């Protein structure tokens, strides 16, 4: 067994004539956190969707815990927990029933789903809300519920697409502390984010992508320095040619 929980090789995604992801390769070591950073439209969500098998791969290969995603999407889904941008919670159900409904998709019996649901709601600090309707939860609570829901099948890898977008600062910190606890339990994490502070807080490694291509890949602590930049944010802005765009905007104005 390789030490990588996730291996992505020469992955490409075409939407008709448009290539959103252009032959990218990367891996995620067991127990580590990898963040994908990139401008709007860079191909981050498309990459995640191919990994969690809701969008077909055009070419290339993804393996999760040694399972080929294209060949065995159902088994690969059992290895992962997913926190998508849209929370897809059933607002007509209670908090605990949302947990149970999700667990049943993994063939978990009602009795075990209920027990596990209660444990996970405790983990994310929603014990007192188990019988509340989802619509009564705040945005931060909903995100924590989605995180709890993603853990019902005991995944080895969790995948999060912009998990804290729109949350207030306190809620972001609560969410981060839960992810750090999971990391300490040995869970591997793959996330996308637009927040450099989030990446610096959570991730071991960062992948910068732009126009469907990887433009940098390395340790969060050393990448900027290795490339000769002051910090990750400056490296990101330079690598994605933000300076040139800013100049163009200024020239258009004058
Ligand atoms: N279903 C689709 N059909 C056609 N084009 C799509 C589809 N989904 C995404 N795209 C295009 O693919 C490109 C990559 O989109 P994607 O959502 O992966 O970017 P992203 O990096 O996640 O952006 P954001 O940060 O805004 O979420 C974009 O140009 C987008 O318009």
UniProtKB/TrEMBL annotation:
Parts forming coiled coils: none
SMART domains reported in the protein's UniProt record: AAA (SM00382)
Domain ABC transporter: 6-236
Entry protein name: ABC transporter, ATP-binding protein
UniProt keyword ATP-binding, yes or no: yes
PANTHER family on file: ABC TRANSPORTER ATP-BINDING PROTEIN, ABC TRANSPORTER ATP-BINDING PROTEIN NATA
Entry's Gene Ontology molecular function annotations: ATP binding; ATP hydrolysis activity
Species: Leuconostoc kimchii (strain IMSNU 11154 / KCTC 2386 / IH25)
